[in-house]
TrEMBL record:
Record: active site: 143 (nucleophile)
GO-annotated biological processes: fatty acid metabolic process
Family: Belongs to the acid ceramidase family.
UniProt key word Signal: yes
Record organism: Panagrolaimus davidi
GO molecular function: fatty acid amide hydrolase activity; N-acylsphingosine amidohydrolase activity
Keywords assigned by UniProt, alphabetized: Glycoprotein, Hydrolase, Lipid metabolism, Signal
Protein name: Ceramidase
Domain (Choloylglycine hydrolase/NAAA C-terminal): residue spans on this chain: 143-324
Domain of life: Eukaryota
Residues making up the signal peptide according to the UniProt record: 1-21
């Protein structure tokens, strides 16, 4: 059984990895677009704001709010399955579904399992498919995150998502199919406790965690996946190898740190200490001077901190999907153009519109999906 799982998951994810190795825009020269007046704040209104009441029992928290997104979620799940089927044939998806049901029943923390039950009830989607969706993003996020402080001491935290690049190219719409599907289910959430918004997050309907978030008046956070998914760890996890360990998924951890930490420093410590299923990069911003850091994580340890230090000219931190001390894959180098573009912008021009333009530039963004500002 274990070998079977290994072969299945390895096939699926290595094919996705291979797909990622040839992003369509990667062949074009980088183009920095600062100063082009691209930013239209009105576009932000397209993403709906919903409220998650953390005082409700887990089954009820997402039921009402995610219910209306059932069709969009199904489209995303079908796209993931279609890719799996194209790549491997018909045998893989039933196996994955079986494993995901098992993960939900035996391995997920019970509050998350119950939250998934509520979403399944409201949308008619299966628990297995929703569990797959929750784990899937863990291994497939390609993006750029920036925290920058301008000369007035204002801090901006922004990120984009390049998910779509992994998926089906829609020639007519000149876009990736999953990107289109994901746009429809992108939501902003207000997480409420005792009737008060304690943090905000952006995610995809159906997901329990967040992609990026802000703890009110304290810190902002985004997380980028490493380019190499840790498939071995997923298999180890599914086969009971982490029994007894409090293991964290990145997007769920991002929500947890919002619930638990009450300052930039506490958040930094939380994100440095947890044991994770996969290595990743946390990009953390704070409200105070020089509060900006990239935490480079493997499963158990912090490998590096890249800190903001405006006094020595480091007025921003920028992270893609490669370790800061490693050369990015040459066809997917979003870091070098991203840094050049930030320099072209200059510290005094850091603003929502300035950073939007950096994130809209080739090849910081392989394909413009959406960007998030709070
Ligand atoms: C995990 O360990 C506990 C006690 O050590 C055991 O009862 C349980 O069956 C184990 N679960 C799995 C999935 O191996
Ligand atoms: C994670 O990093 C620590 C510290 O460098 C190292 O000891 C450990 O082996 C690493 N874990 C993996 C799985 O690479
Ligand atoms: C930055 O701002 C200055 C004025 O403060 C302006 O002259 C310049 O064109 C701006 N540069 C960019 C790249 O937006």
């Amino acid at each position: 059984m274990q070998l079977f799982i290994t072969v299945g998951l390895t096939t699926l994810f290595s094919c996705l990895l291979f797909a990622d190795a040839t992003p369509p825009e990667g062949i074009y020269a980088p183009k920095c677009r600062v100063g082009e007046g691209l930013y239209d704040p009105a576009q932000a209104a397209v993403v709906p704001w919903l409220t998650v009441d953390l005082d409700l029992p887990p089954e009820q928290r997402y039921r009402e709010i995610y219910g209306p997104f059932g069709a969009g979620m199904k489209e995303v799940i079908d796209t993931i399955k279609m890719m799996g089927t194209i790549v491997t044939g018909d045998w893989l998806i039933p196996l994955i579904e079986h494993l995901m049901q098992y993960a939900h029943d035996e391995l997920f923390p019970s509050k998350y399992a119950k939250e998934i039950d509520g979403i399944a009830e409201a949308t008619g989607l299966s628990v297995a498919d929703l569990s797959m969706m929750n784990i899937y993003y863990e291994l497939s996020r390609f993006c750029t995150s920036i925290v920058a402080e301008n000369t007035n001491g204002q801090v901006f935290h922004a990120r984009n998502l390049d998910f779509g690049q992994l998926f089906v190219w829609d020639i007519e719409k000149k876009s990736w199919h999953l990107t289109e599907a994901l746009k429809k289910i992108t939501v902003n959430l207000n997480f409420v406790k005792d009737g008060k918004v304690i943090f905000k997050g952006t995610t995809f309907a159906g997901h329990l965690g967040i992609i990026t978030g802000m703890k009110m008046d304290q810190f902002t956070l985004s997380m980028n996946a490493k380019v190499k998914p840790d498939i071995g760890n997923v298999i180890k996890w599914l086969t009971g190898g982490y029994n007894g360990t409090d293991i964290h998924f990145g997007m769920w951890a991002e929500r947890e740190v919002m619930e638990k930490a009450n300052s930039f420093q506490e958040a930094k410590e939380f994100l440095s200490d947890i044991v994770q299923l996969a290595g990743c990069y946390y990009i953390l911003g704070g409200k105070n001077h020089n509060e900006g850091v990239i935490i480079v994580r493997n499963e158990t340890d912090v490998l590096d901190y890249v800190e903001m230090n405006t006094e020595s000219g480091k007025w921003y931190v920028l992270q893609t999907n490669y370790d800061p001390d490693q050369e990015p894959l040459f066809i997917d180098d979003r870091r070098t153009p991203g840094n050049k573009c930030m320099m072209a912008l200059g510290q005094s021009n850091v603003s929502a519109s300035g950073i939007y333009e950096v994130l809209s530039s080739k090849t910081t963004l392989n394909k413009v999906c959406f960007r998030i500002f709070y």
